[in-house]
Every structure is written in C-alpha cells, then in structure tokens.
C-alpha cells in the first residue's frame, strides 16, 4: 500500500553568525526535545540563484519529506544568502565553517551537553566530507571512515588503490581514458552500494547511457566494486567511468552528486528513487523496500503495483491513482 510521509511545516531559522573557523556560542535557551530524528547537514547551503541551489533544496526536501528535522552547518555568508525555500525547509542553521573538523566537533559536543541530540550526519559538498566523517565518528553515528574519505579524495592515492585492486585506471589523471564517459550514481543501504542510474554527460546536460560495449549491469557492478574497494560504506556516491573496448575504466569517485544538473536528471529519470531518503532510512534503522535498480529510464511511468511502498506522493493520497509516477515534493 502506498504511504504518504508528512510532518509539520518546518519553521524558518535565523542562522547564528559565527566567524569562519571558530566555535559557535553555546545555546542558552531551554532545549525542547525535537518531535523526530535530527540530521546534522554540513555544507547544505547554496546561495539564492546559484547553480547548486536546486540540488541543495532537493536534498533538504527529501529530508523534510522523510520526517527528519535538519540542523545545517555552513559559512554564515552562505546561510544568509539562501533563498526562501532553503530557509523554510531547514529547521535550524548555524554559521560555522563546516570544513574545519575541530570546530564542528566542539560545536556538536556543546550542543549535546546543552541537551540537543543528533541522529545522523551527512556532508553535502565534497569539501566537507572529511569533517562529516570525523564528526560522525566523534558522535558515534553512521558514516564513512575518515581514512576512506582521505583515500578517495586524494587522486594519486585513489588511483593507486584501484590499480592495486585490479581495476582499469588511467595512470595519468590529466589525460582522460579513451572510450565513452559516463557516471554511475548510487547510495549505500545496509553497507552495500546500490547503483540506480547510469548517465552520459552531454552539452545540454545528461542523457541515458545507451549503446555501450558493456551491459548496464556490468557497469554498475564495476562502480559498486570500486567504492567498496576504497573502503566506503555510507551515503551517496558518484563514480565516473569510461566504457572502452579494453574494459571499464574508473576515472573518479565522489561522495556527492556535485555535477550541474545531475540530481535533477536523476529526479526526472527515476522519480521513484530518492537517494537521500534511502540514506536517512538506513542510518535511522528504518525498514524500507529497496527499489530494483533500473539503471535507465522506464519507457512509461510505473504502474501503481510497481511503485515502492516508501515513496512520497506529491499531493493527497486520493491523487495516487491518477498520478502513480509522481513521488517527489509536497504541497
């Protein structure tokens, strides 16, 4: 049976303005226990009309729709420049340079001492991934190991580790391998990587990956094997591949979906797959049906019987029969 998730409307929050690299002052107001789980999001702010604004808002919307409250940490100037949608969708926001691990850990421990709780930590920009991993470890919450993040983010270390594991890589990072470039997008559930989309970058954005010398299953398997070999175990991931006649070359691995239009292409192509909701459910121990990884767009919207039971309907439940394929957004 289809289930609609809902929660009370989030209240706009005025960000505390803390100088970059310093610890925010402790909260003195009485702490009220939140109505649901709380996600600490690092680097979630994108300035209004910035190319990354839609991706940031989409991530916050998935958090909001899954019933998870958010506390955003980012530079004060970015928080102040957010558009109205981001302000409404985030419950709390604090101006803090989320790149600096020590400042983030000190701030979070101060909040805990004041009675606040955090149930999961997620970094939404590539530059905050190490801080997110260190913060999750300090708070004893699910996350990637800091050493794995360092391994992935250092190009030389990443390529050496993949080559040692038998993966086809290009030893010259400045020269792209021959073959068709494409990107695999996925998320970890129960410690295992699941690839949901294979897309080819084009001049106009992104297109489905078709006509390649390898099957979608083989490409997805290589991407999943690469992130596992590098020691990742949590969150979303993006693996850049080159499909060649010699094999499948792995050229890059990222812990975010940072690429212009990629998240919008995912939402448009596979509306029943909400990657961040999968991550939230997994981190919070929720049981949810895992959608089969279609890897490519369906020829038509899925029939009601094939829509996963955890999806969010855009509208009232009585509208499900008329629009079974709609599963993103809220009224």
Structure characterization notes:
With 331 residues, the chain is α/β, with parallel strands linked by helices. Helices cover 29% and strands 18% of the residues. The strands form 2 sheets. A 5-stranded antiparallel β-sheet has the order 7-6-5-8-9. Strands 3-2-1-4 form a 4-stranded parallel β-sheet, sandwiched between helices. Strand 6 and strand 7 (205-208) form a beta hairpin. Helix 6 (146-153) crosses helix 7 (155-164). The longest helix has 14 residues, at 216-229. It is globular, with a radius of gyration of 20 Å. The chain starts with 37 loop residues before the first strand and ends in a 48-residue tail after the last helix.
How much helical structure, as a percent, in the residues?
Answer: 25-40%
Structural class of the secondary structure composition? alpha/beta
Poorly predicted ranges: 1-30, 298-331
Rg is 20 Å
Number of strands: 9
The description of the largest β-sheet is: 5 strands, antiparallel
Question: What's this model, at a glance?
Answer:
With 331 residues, this protein is an alpha/beta fold. 29% of the residues lie in helices and 18% in strands. The longest helix is centred in the last third of the chain and has 14 residues.
